[in-house]
């Protein structure tokens, strides 16, 4: 706890406490990141289509891998943005630009991977 006794600054003492903070992190990224809400909406759409096509287990595995990569990539992007903003605030810094652009590039690459997986698997079912 901090000096006000309101905020925790020491290490988690129980698994429950650690889980609670991890869950807070997931809720925060969904609340604050518009892109994450878009990814979640796309995830629901993909899962509905995947159920419709009655995918096989190996196909589900590729789809789930793509979904989790994009979502975790967006989380990493959000973490980088928060750390950069905390460090430089609203000042321009070339390294801040580099870090944020690279983190955004990571999400773009992972989204590209997800699109390729989707085209291969759903395309195969369509033809
Ligand atoms: N402090 C800074 N110094 C230099 N360039 C910055 C700085 N903050 C932002 N930028 C530039 O502005 C761009 C957009 O910044 P922002 O923080 O909105 O990230 P974003 O990737 O657009 O966010 P989101 O993922 O929410 O769309 C960055 O990719 C970077 O090029």
UniProtKB/TrEMBL annotation:
GO terms for molecular function: ATP binding; kinase activity; metal ion binding. Its main location: membrane. Its cofactor is Mg(2+). It is found in: Cell membrane. ATP binds at residues 33, 81, 100-101. GO terms for cellular component: plasma membrane. Mn(2+), Zn(2+), Cd(2+) and Co(2+) support activity to lesser extents. This is Diacylglycerol kinase. GO terms for biological process: phospholipid biosynthetic process. It comes from Limosilactobacillus gastricus DSM 16045.
